[in-house]
Design goal:
The protein has 3 helices and 6 strands; from the N terminus they run H-E-E-E-E-H-E-E-H. Helices cover about 35% and strands about 30% of the residues. By secondary structure, it is α+β, with helices and mostly antiparallel strands. It has a 6-stranded antiparallel sheet, with no helix packed on it.
């Protein structure tokens, strides 16, 4: 009789465990499809300028609801941070110059940090792909949209982060 009870409990436990696992998996699938309806929608953009003899850096990250900026210099051991919420209209203005179909054509250039230069890095994320460019300013054909993004970004940032 005890063997039968153990077998019954094992079967019951297995059924409960499997049903819990399947219900969690379906929630994950539903949640991810709802949050990313458009695979070409920009969800995150960052621009950074890092390098030079004094180890200066400026990093700006933007999402559809906020902007975060930090800057400093490793030689002088300085660091400042700033963050602000933005509305959907500001976000649309910010990314309006970025053409998703051109992103695959932008070309990066070699790093300048090894010769005490400053590297400019852009990262643009969509639900489908993450695009990363280093020193893309040499790609004169496609860089204009990234330059316009930086101009829009400077309109949002306080003067000390521009």
């Amino acid at each position: 009789m005890p063997t039968t009870k153990k077998l019954y409990l094992k079967i019951l436990f297995s059924i409960l465990l499997l049903s819990a696992l399947f219900s969690c998996d379906s929630k994950k699938t539903q949640g991810s499809s709802v949050s990313h309806n458009n695979p070409y929608e920009i969800t995150f953009v960052s621009v950074s300028e890092i390098g030079g003899r004094l180890g200066s850096y400026r990093i700006i990250k933007a999402t559809k609801d906020s902007v975060f900026a930090e800057k400093g210099m490793t030689a002088g051991k300085t660091h400042k941070e700033w963050a602000s919420a933005i509305n959907s209209e500001t976000w649309k203005k910010l990314i309006s110059s970025v053409n998703i179909t051109d992103l695959d054509h932008i070309k990066s250039s070699p790093s300048q940090q090894s010769v005490d230069g400053i590297d400019e890095t852009f990262q643009i994320r969509t639900p489908k792909k993450s695009h990363i460019y280093v020193n893309a300013y040499t790609d004169t054909l496609h860089y204009k949209q990234l330059e316009q993004f930086k101009e829009q970004l400077d309109k949002i940032l306080p003067k000390e982060y521009q």
